[in-house]
Amino acid sequence: MSKNIAITIVQDNKTINKTYIGLLKQHYNVKLIDINAIITESFINSELMIIQINLNDPNAIAPLKSLMALPERSHIPALFLLREFSRREIIQASTLGATDYTTYPCPEDSFLQLVYNMIHKSGKKIWAQLSETQEEALKVSLKVVENTFRNASLGLEVSQKDVKDSCNLIIEATAKDGLTEWMNTIRQHHVYTYRHSMMVCGYLLSFGMLLGLSKTDLQMLAVGGMIHDIGKAKVPLEILDKSTALTPEEIDIIKKHPEDGRHILKKQNWDKVMIDIAAHHHEKLDGTGYPSGLK
After folding, report:
1. Using DSSP, how many helices (H) and how many strands (E) does the chain show?
2. Distance of alpha carbon 28 from its chain centroid, rounded?
3. Furthest-apart CA pair in the chain: how many Å?
4. At 174, which CATH number?
5. Same domain, 168 and 276
6. CB under 8 Å to 223, separation ≥6 — which residues?
7. Which terminus in the chain has less CB density within 10 A, N or C?
8. In terms of Cα–Cα distance, which of 128, 117, 118, 115 is closest to 185?
9. First and final C-alpha spacing in the chain
10. CB-side neighbour CA atoms (13 Å) of 126
11. Does 273 lie in the same domain as 137?
12. Using CA atoms, how far apart are residues 162 and 150, in angstroms rounded to an integer?
């Protein structure tokens, strides 16, 4: 541990337990920032950002979303301190872009070890672990995913060629250098929908390789994983990125995304298999899935 390593702690005025701050100051250069007073210079040289705010407070969530979306923050891991290990708080933290999370208070040794591990596995260090092939595949595919969702939301072309070409790069990189570092790097991306699409792509590709599938079938799996949630491009961001519980009405809107995905891809003459993946990825074997209740 080193006093030369900077940690930025982001809090709101409702933060109660702050005893860990003194603990961290014994080992690191710690800066305290109010969630409503953040500027880029506040954290630009930090190796870790610790977030301790009330995740049920909309007044704190709005500026936190803005912070987490800043390009300057994307390489800095974010540790969320939760009040409790509840499903709701975990989903909130994950949606907001948490690299990791823990409850506090917790044992001091465990807390310091978690902080140490996160600093030494930060975004910059993870990118540095990628091979040239992996880095190129990740940069290209992330850009393609971003363009694909943006174009779909605007009613513009969703290019099959760009998606397939980027997936071919992923297949090549995975076959050559494996998937672990690639997936670890994806986990640092601040936009949940993009992160989720890329990780589904990676998991499907890994599964297909384990089964010994042909390159054609691997491409089909990878492309399907990348675009399966394309219908979410039509979901309002205030619902898609909401960190608190969805209302029944908002859940109904979210559940329209498979049909929206079908319409987006069908309108642009995508392969039927890809259209089916977008339309049916929430179906279940027992018929309780949606939108068609297939068995």
Report:
1. 14, 5
2. 28
3. 60
4. 1.10.3210.10
5. yes
6. 163, 164, 167, 201, 274
7. C
8. 128
9. 55
10. 24
11. yes
12. 14
- Based on the domain organization, do 176 and 60 belong to the same domain? no
Looking at the fold, whether 70 and 119 belong to one and the same domain comes out as yes
Q: Are 171 and 219 in contact (CB under 8 A)?
A: yes
Residues 190-216: tens digit of each pLDDT: 567 888 899 899 999 999 999 999 999
Angstrom distance (rounded) from CA 225 to CA 241: 20
Residue 64's nearest CA partner among 79, 51, 45 is 51
Confirm whether 288 is domain-assigned: no
Judge whether 28 lies within some domain.
yes
92 with 139, same domain: the answer is: no
- pLDDT band at 16; cut points 50, 70, 90: low
Mean pLDDT of 81-97: 84
Question: pLDDT tens digits for 229-267?
Answer: 999 999 987 888 665 678 999 999 999 999 999 999 999
Strand, helix or coil at 7? Answer: strand
242 in a domain, yes or no?
A: yes
**By residue range, what is the domain housing residue 20?**
6-126
Based on the fold, state whether residues 180 and 276 are members of the same structural domain.
yes
32, 46: one domain? yes
**Number of domains forming the structure of the chain:** 2
Assigned token pair, 166: 């980027």
Decide: helix, strand or coil at residue 190. Answer: coil
Phi-psi region of 271 (alpha: psi -120 to 50; beta: other; left: phi over 0): beta
CA distances from 295 to 30, 63, 124, 259, 288 (A): 55, 44, 45, 18, 8
